[in-house]
Amino acid sequence: MRRPAGAGEHVARPRSAGPATAWALVGLVLLTINLRAAITGIPPLLAELRDVFGLTGVQVGLLTTLPVLCLGVFASLAPVLARRFGAEAVIAGALMMITVGIVLRVVAEPIALFLGTVVAGAGIALGNVLMPSIIKRVFPSRVGSLTGLTMTVMAASGALAAGIAVPLDQAGGWRLALAVWAVPSLVAALVWGPLALRARTAPDRAVRTPPAGAEGSLLRSPLAWYIAAFMGLASLMFYVLMSWFPEIMRDGGHSPAAAGMMVSSMLVVGLPLGYAVPVLAARLRDQRPLVAGIGATMVIGIGGMAVAPSAGWVWVVALGIGTGSAFPLAYTLLNLRSPSPSVAARLSGMAQTAGYLLAGFGPLAIGVLHDATGGWNVPLVLLLVLLIPKLTFGFLAARPGHVQTRPVEKREVPFTQPMPS
């Protein structure tokens, strides 16, 4: 006898590898390409943007911190909008926001530069949150491999945007260097438009509205907070190292060119791990061994920077492994610890809101601590201390199980319409 579906949850339907599913895969890849490039393409151009717009040092700092804060501030809106309009429609709108934000930034006015950064950052936040739920709903048997693919493409596009920013600036000016990324975001929006339309007009669109109390809050779920804390501290470590590693290496005796190359190499070391870690994590029932490996490499890398900065290339490899594994693992846990696509979206929104808000203040705090102490030893010791809660929350989040929601009294509408196959 067939067991009825749980209240408020969609019945999982087998999906054939038909045209719609293939189109969704193309859309997923295109979405991922646009979730980092608009952010990482800015730092290499800061010197020219400062001259063109007449920015102060505080404004330059705000310009680099603003995108990360936007990822946190707007992440919580994604599940709400997805329940109202459907995940595909929200993603299409998010990609249009990224396009509009990028175009706004080529207007030679400071207010347009900052407004465009906020609009693009909001679009990226929405796409970030909804991507795990799309993977879980449309490709439930390929969560590990597709999460790995998206993490790899995201990292590669971010590195590419940073790498070609200066050459494009030299070839055609700062406007070209910024505006070029409006093309892939517009193409991606045009792909997601038909997906959104199909989701709303599908013959099987009639999904029951969850009865009262069927959907619950994640705010009282300890596991949800463990995942949020692990993701936040992993993101904080990453953004702190991206911001200050070159300065630490220069103060340790390395040339500016070598210090810059070390940061790029750290990203390159992490690229294959962005694919391998989600695939391995999805095959394991218990992901705590992966957390232990991440912790060991981070202790070696950060401790080595403090004790022997002259051996910078050794610490590059260790930190590349640690940072290149931590965020993909945290992202994979969003799906592995969620019993349904709707819960995955809500957990993603909660974790990324808390995580990116925490990460956004990390580089600023480390910079202030460096200025106050006149060196890097105290900031690096602080990072080592922060590894303790990071690993503790990581071990708790990596244990087998699903987040448990607490009942609520009000009725809620379905998260999204099923995507046709």
Low-confidence stretches: 1-17, 203-213, 408-421
Q: Main β-sheet: number of strands, strand sense, barrel status?
A: 2 strands, antiparallel
| CATH architecture classification name of the largest domain | Up-down Bundle
Assigned CATH class of the largest domain: Mainly Alpha
H/E element order: HHHHHHHHHHEHHHHHHE
| Mean model confidence by pLDDT | 84
Give the overall shape. Answer: globular
Spatial strand arrangement across the major sheet: 1-2
Total of domains: 2
Number of strands: 2
Radius of gyration: 21 Å
Q: Write the CATH homologous superfamily of the largest domain.
A: MFS general substrate transporter like domains
Strand percent estimate? under 5%
Report the helical percentage.
Answer: over 70%
**Cα-to-Cα separation, first versus last residue:** 26 Å
CATH fold type of the largest domain = Growth Hormone, Chain: A
The number of helical elements comes to 16
> Which structural class matches the secondary elements?
mainly alpha
